[in-house]
Amino acid sequence: MVNYIDLQCHTTASDGRNSPQELIDIAVKKKLSAISITDHDTINGLDEALKYAKNKNIEIIPGVEITCDDRGFMDTHILGLFIDYKNNSLISLLNKSKKFRDIQKKDTIIKLRDLGFSITYKEVRAMANGEIGRPHIAKVLLKNNPDKVESIEDIFSRYLATGEKAYVKRKKGISVKEAIAAIHSAKGLAFVAHPGVYTHFDANKFIKYFLKEGGDGIETIYDYSSSRKNITKKESREIIKKYSNLVKKLKILETGGSDFHGKKFQVLGNLRVPISILNNLKKITSERG
What we know:
CATH superfamily of the largest domain: Metal-dependent hydrolases
Strand order of the largest sheet: 7-6-5-4-3-2-1-8
Largest sheet: 8 strands, mixed
Mean pLDDT: 93
CATH class of the largest domain: Alpha Beta
């Protein structure tokens, strides 16, 4: 019997819909051997998760997903796995990222108001239990403007997705080098998350740049069909195969995760990430000390 894992999950500490405890309960029910909690630019859910998971039949890998804007590679996500989440260098970087994130979200809200929508930062802040993300903005927008927008998906496709009417680039961003350095300082491994979603630039060039800056590998197994619009299951399998082959060619590390946020069309455990991937990463971290 093959045991399965999921090394990219989100909670209410960022833009997930389940608390750390709820996420762990779902993962245990699905009989996953391990999950990694990788909230966006924050480690605030990890204490709760690790304490709650004690004496439960599941392993929690401390993680984080850091947003970077660097040299034309905009809005990229770097996963840090096996991190010491109390590391001062990592915490300092995440605090800086939080400031950049808040400025960006406030600018997005201003742009939406200029477009005639009813929405305030205070409302969005109240909607988010943790770090503010675009899903929180979308929820408030839908609640306040039912006559102008149809759904969360409609809001993203017309306004919040990269390059759309209300999308705002971060005025300042974390560099790839900074993210990798902070993850390594925290004794973690750094990966390019979901490389197949980067269609607004050359993903292979970004991976090359990431590795040059000291990155460890890429996320090969990812649920593109349930996490990204207009990608079929067949296309998702093809993307996974493409990046799995790239890992072998470049002889780099790989990870896998569903990007679970608790959305209604996501089912934790459907993505089959074998435990052999986790075992290999454990071996590498042990060798590095």
